[in-house]
Records
---
Amino acid sequence: MLETLSEVQSLDLQRDALAVERGEVPTELLAARERRETLRRDLAKVQQEHEALRRRVASNELDLKTLQERRKDASEAALRATTSKEMAQYQNQELQFTTRAQELEEDTLPLMEELEGIAAAMAELEEQLAAMTPELEALEAAERERLTVIDTRDADLADRRARLCNEVEAGLLRQYEQVRRARRGLALVGLEGGKRCGGCHVQLPIHVLQKVRRGAGVTRCPSCGRLLVQPTED
Ligand SMILES: [Zn+2]
């Protein structure tokens, strides 16, 4: 019974090791994911800047169009003016609109240049992202493959474990699982030097040692609660 349980434990330890292995994502992949995230963040930031600036430029262009229309209206009104005073008023208006339109154009020009610079930065980041994609995809595919292999191995171990567990008495299995959870790993241990617990290394009392040696039922370490098995020479 304990021998079968010992096999169960061996499978459990292999599964523990697999779980650790599963979590060990290759550093190359982690670095590539990190780099992509950085590029994406940078790109999102630049895209926002681009959009904000594009709106400002569009708004200026709309204002400019309005000013030009008003200037045209003033110019036409000046031609239709009946008095010289009225004509001077419209001409004055036309001049004001012209000046404001010029100022706005001057203000907008650097914004448009800035917009071009941001668009170039955006294209550069998009290019960098596109350039790294094949490598990252290859690394991700390798990672999926790695995990599939581990999962297949684990499923096989789980299968073997389930079959073995059918042969172990339910109460004993329960005790084993409780101790394994509590001790995070080994639940079943041998005797160390023939007299100490193989788990917590405490020196075992004579009556406990005798019980273990007789192999009569399940004996637990009074200190750590692990299940003790027949002494092994070590
Ligand atoms: Zn112990």
---
Amino acid sequence: MSFMELAKDRYSVRSFSEKPVEQEKMDAILEAARIAPTAVNYQPQRIYVLRSKGAVDLINGLCKCIYGAPVVFLICSDERRSWKSRTERGYSSGEMDCSIVCTHMMLEAWELGIGSVWVRLFDVEEVRKAFSLPPHIRPICLLPIGYPAADCVPYAPWHNVYRPIEDFVEYL
Ligand SMILES: Cc1cc2nc3c(=O)[nH]c(=O)nc-3n(C[C@H](O)[C@H](O)[C@H](O)COP(=O)(O)O)c2cc1C
């Protein structure tokens, strides 16, 4: 599949099968996270793999959007490592870096037949407390992954309804 075919084919999976994700596929998805571009290549991503029953139960209790996934990546920014702007007060690249990391993971997963859904509907402080994250580790998003359930289809009929390019691009 070409990149464009892959990008157009992917959709958010919101119904997972119980089939475990093979370690080779986990490794490939984490490799995609490893090589993602980040500001100054500072690589602030810190990823917790929630795979034990205890960890998956814990995140299910805090987030309604896990959809039965057997594995959930908790993608965080290590704010001690992220790039900080000298001119823009308070700016850290952590969230942007981790968004690129998550996008890499999502697309690599899809290439391997593994579905995922980007999730931000959780309380950062609750998650921090539940997984005993230190203050410099900032939860950015969750990425539940797994094999799509047999009857899985895109949840929203508008998932691939996109604005025309002229609507959001302006040549100057
Ligand atoms: C920043 C961000 C946050 C999102 N948060 C959630 C979420 O909390 N729960 C959820 O089910 N989907 C969430 N999504 C998935 C989007 O709803 C989905 O990507 C969008 O509707 C397009 O559909 P598609 O991924 O199937 O193409 C999120 C996506 C992004 C990029």
---
Amino acid sequence: MLDLKKLLDGSLQSIEFSLSLDDCSFVDESVSGVACANGVITNHSGLILLKGDVKPKLSVVCARCGKEYEYSTPIALNAKITDKLANEDEEEFIIMQDFAIDIEDIVRTALILELPTRYLCKEDCKGLCAKCGADLNESSCNCETKERDSRWDVLKDYFSE
Ligand SMILES: [Zn+2]
Ligand SMILES: [Zn+2]
């Protein structure tokens, strides 16, 4: 827990934080790796703001070609911190407990919410050929021209009976 009392009573203007998570498999069982986060919490005349970023360094698997690659797109942290919610719609607020916040929990939540549910090694990854399994990013195969919808085969059999 990060104690914010000195920020709240005015004896500090800002509090910096940094932490690292050495196992990010809580995000998804197919994800492994680490993440580090750092940032600063400031008191703007009573408005407590948290700003920072999370830098993941994850080993993930491309959903199209199955290749393992490193995912390292940073996630921005931007939140307001309060001791109680004025109304329940204020989702962007983080609630203090005993004038402290759980930075690790905030970072974990950001990773869970912001990491993609499906990873692509590149935006236009061509994936694997469904027939021969060739990696179409690296080579083309001869299957594509013969490709047809197998549902037609079923109909053809039906009519020939
Ligand atoms: Zn891929
Ligand atoms: Zn093929």
---
Amino acid sequence: MNDVIVVASGKGGTGKSTVCVGLAVALVKQNKRVLLIDCDCGMRGIDLMLDVEEEILFDCSDVICGNCKPRDAVYPSKNLNELHIMAAPFDTDNEISPSVFKQMTDELKTDYDYVIIDSPAGLGSGFATAAAPADRALIVTNAEPTGLRGAIKIKTRLKSLGINDIRLIINRFDRKQFEENDCYEDLDEVVDVAGVRLIALIPYDGRLSAMFQNGYAGLNWSPAVTVFDCLAKRIDGAKVPLAYKG
Ligand SMILES: Nc1ncnc2c1ncn2[C@@H]1O[C@H](COP(=O)(O)OP(=O)(O)OP(=O)(O)O)[C@@H](O)[C@H]1O
Ligand SMILES: [Mg+2]
């Protein structure tokens, strides 16, 4: 299958990295071979979320600079060996060109069912690099006007890059807050404003932060994990209803 999926948002802090890790773990639980590439150069976090920061000798900029081969920069995550990770560089001294990043990803993707790419916030060159190898995109937003503005902008950019298979994830949803904000009539209006088909609605779930900021060590059941399991099935083409409808 070798599908490459970029996770993007426009606005920062909407939950891209959280979705990347949650989806990657859920796909592995469904026996898929998954590589998660952190392309948030200068602000990497996936290594911390999956507790491999001490193991990483090479990151993706080492591959690009020729310091190592692509597979030398791939590490198994500590708590789930079948999930493989490539870290972003700590600094952004050497900007990674979209075509070189695509070439590297194309070489690696033959080993995997899914390659998931975490992208930086914003519409800049870092985003263009992260999106270059992608066949599909997931846009992560919150159900708020600022998040949706970012979602619309990133959708336009993705289309200009030739990526038309785009689905929406509304993250950190809290019904009480949504009603207090009073910005939209209902979730259908949020999806209409974004102009992208919804693939998952993820509730606000305080346990997610706790799990992910602790290297995913204590992963147990939580409402958001159920949604990730369902999202993984939907990504894989199964016709299953949304796990959470708000
Ligand atoms: N559904 C959720 N419920 C509760 N907290 C969440 C949820 N999703 C994400 N978070 C928390 O929100 C914060 C931002 O999430 P995350 O780092 O995944 O966003 P991001 O889009 O990757 O940010 P950046 O643009 O800086 O890369 C984190 O503390 C994360 O644990
Ligand atoms: Mg992030």
